[in-house]
Amino acid sequence: MLQELTIRNFAIIESLNLSFQEGMTVLTGETGAGKSIIIDALGLLVGGRGSVDFIRHGEDKLEIQGLFTVNSQNKGCLEALEHNGIDASDGMVVLERILFQSGKNTCRINGKLATTVVLREIGSRLIDIHSQHEHQELMNDEFHLQLLDRFAWKDIEPTLVRYQTEYIAYTEMKSKWQNWTKNEQELAQRLDMLRFQQDEITSANLRLGEEEGLMEQKHVLANFEKINENLQSAYAALQGEERGLEFISEAMRYVATASDILSEYKSLSESVASSFYLLEESAMQIRQELDNLEFQPDELDTIETRLNELSQLKRKYGKTVEAIIQYNEEIDQEILELSDQETHLDQLEQDLESAKDRLSVLASKLTAIRQKAAIRLGKQIKNELNQLYMEKAIFQVNFTTQTSEFTENGVDKVAFYMSTNPGEPLKALSKVASGGELSRMMLALKTIFSRHQGITSIIFDEVDTGVSGRVAQAIAEKIYAVAIGSQVLCISHLPQVAAMADNHFYISKATTGKRTVTSVTPLSGDEKIEEISRMIAGIEVTDVTKQHANEMLTQAMKIKSQKQA
Known about the structure:
Layout: E1 2-10, E2 13-19, E3 23-29, H1 35-45, E4 61-69, H2 75-83, E5 92-100, E6 105-109, E7 112-114, H3 116-123, E8 127-131, H4 141-151, H5 153-180, H6 184-203, H7 210-222, H8 224-239, H9 244-261, H10 266-292, H11 297-317, H12 321-339, H13 341-387, E9 394-401, E10 412-419, E11 427-428, H14 435-453, E12 457-461, H15 469-483, E13 487-491, H16 495-500, E14 503-512, E15 515-523, H17 526-537, H18 543-564
Helix pairs in contact: 4-5, 5-13, 6-12, 7-11, 8-10, 9-10, 11-12, 13-14, 14-15, 17-18
Keywords: ATP-binding, Coiled coil, DNA damage, DNA repair, Nucleotide-binding
Domain RecF/RecN/SMC N-terminal: 1-513
Function: May be involved in recombinational repair of damaged DNA.
């Protein structure tokens, strides 16, 4: 549910803070006051296309923030949040969008930076904005299959999940088969190239850890003179002319003599003696290392040549020796398959045919489930249309089955068709012309699908256009029915709709200085009666219209009590 909305510097809105409640909220006001601007701001907040034209004149940026509450019923939203690494464990979702004059966008979800794609993914599961001119999924045949599946989700989910798993395996297998059935010359050229690569890698006789060992040997040979010079100096300091060990030997004798006299010096004598013998042994080891040192310039050239060979192979086949060896194992398998192409192709074709058979069985099950669901959907929509005074309307789900072409969702193409008057042929929903009839049709569909979409808030932007009288009352009651137990925001010019609202906001604009500013006022009591009277009568409000408005509110309370019972 949308709880809080903050808008700054959006069109003629300078600064606006709104709090919303559950149930049905209506927004009314004069044409041009900014009602639809609020809906536009919400659309931008949930990932709609941004434009610098939205930014209030003279400002460098616009800001929109919205606070939503979600629970376990909003499963799709919670899954999308988790998938994108966004924490909503407290049941709160805060969307924020800032649009700068430079065209730069900054989007955040619960304080975490997000792309507009992620914002749209999350936003579409929080709000469903429906307007007279933008019918979204319901007006697009491409989405009708998804809507039908949502309606029948409990029945169709197990089969659809199995189908989609098989479909992924099938498409991968088909792609592999297509690659194998390419031009024979291409395959022959590929085989020649792989064999050349295999020969080059095999002849290199690669060994794990070899490169590291060669680098160490290279380091030693490149620093031979330094190593020799330092070992010579160390040996000379111990056993050379300076005879460092002789001085330590003398010190050892002196301390030993002192310890013979006074036992307290015994540990000191042992320490000096231990140091002498250790240094003497070290001197012997240094001498041995000097005797073993032998500069081999040819060996350095050999190492350089081998390292260069390994470098060339890494540039071609992998970043490391391990990767090259792995690549060689992979091309071994591909060479084996290419060499035995006919047998391999036969096996692939058999596997592909088996996968196709499994898909066909599951696709047929999907079609059967959908066709049964379409009958139930048709009956429910017929019932909704009857309540909206479209008793003669006919609704039908048209199926087109492509048995030879599998898609991610089966072999069905679905389109919603209807006829609004007796004798008229069924037409695609997108081609129904009458604005009033279309409004009722869309509301009937929304009433049904809102139960299956898990959307936090549904927004109707003047969907009651083109209706009046008893139809207007029926639409008002239908919108209220959708709002029971959820949240609906509705922009309307119909007093019948306003009378049914649980919450009523009046949108107005005024000129302050030389600037136009939009403001929002919550209405209750006499204020609500005054506004409904204005909606009934237009400019001049009389006692009669106020009495009529009061009667409408009284009647609305009775209807709402009956629907809640």
